[in-house]
Amino acid sequence: MKVAVLDIKGKETGRKVDLSDDVFAIEPNEHAIYLDVKQYLAHQRQGTHKAKERAEIAGSTRKIKKQKGTGTARAGSIKSPIFRGGGRIFGPRPKDYTQKLNKNMKRLARKSALSLKSKEKSLVVVEDFSFEAPKTKDFVNFLSSLGIENKKSLIVLGDSNNNVYLSSRNLERSEVVTGSELNTYKIVNATSLVLTESALERIESNLKK
Fold this sequence. Notes:
With about 210 residues, the protein is an alpha/beta fold. Helix content is about 35%, strand content about 15%. It comes from Allomuricauda ruestringensis (strain DSM 13258 / CIP 107369 / LMG 19739 / B1).
C-alpha cells in the first residue's frame, strides 16, 4: 500500500512510501490489542498502597478495662480496629500488578493497532523534520498544516529530538515519542497517528522480526 509523504507544511513532496502489508494491512486481532492495553495499564500501577493492621499499630498492650462489670462490651486492646487510631481491618497491602504477555502477542497487538489506523485513514507519513529552537507555536503550526490541531495526535520520530519534544510538551492533546517507545496503548489512544519516514523504517524492521 502506497502513501504520499508530506512535508512539514502538510504539502505532498511528490514521493510515496510503501507500507508493509505484514504490518499495516493485517486482519486486526482485537483480543490481542485488549490484552496488550490491559498489560500496559496494569504496569502503570505502583502497587505500594499499604495500611497498618492491628498487629502493626504502635500502642499499649494493657487491657483497657476490666472484663466484667462495666456494662459495656469487652475490650482487650487499644489497637482494636473498632477504636479510633486502631488498626485497619483487611487493609490494602503491597501488590505486584505486572502481567505477562509473550512477545509474539505483543507484536501482533501493535500490528493490529497500526492496521486499524491505516484502515481508518488516520495515519500520515511526513518527512523527517526538526525545529531550530523549542517553540510551541512552530509545533502548533505543524499540526495545523496536517489538519489535526484539534485532535488527539501521536507523532512518532525515528530518533529523539529535543527541540520537537520540548515544543510539544505544553500541548495536552499531542504527544511525541520515538519508534522504540511506541506501544499499542499509545496507538489506540490517539485519534491521528503521524509517522516520520525514519520512524516508519524502524517500526517495520522491528515488527517484521
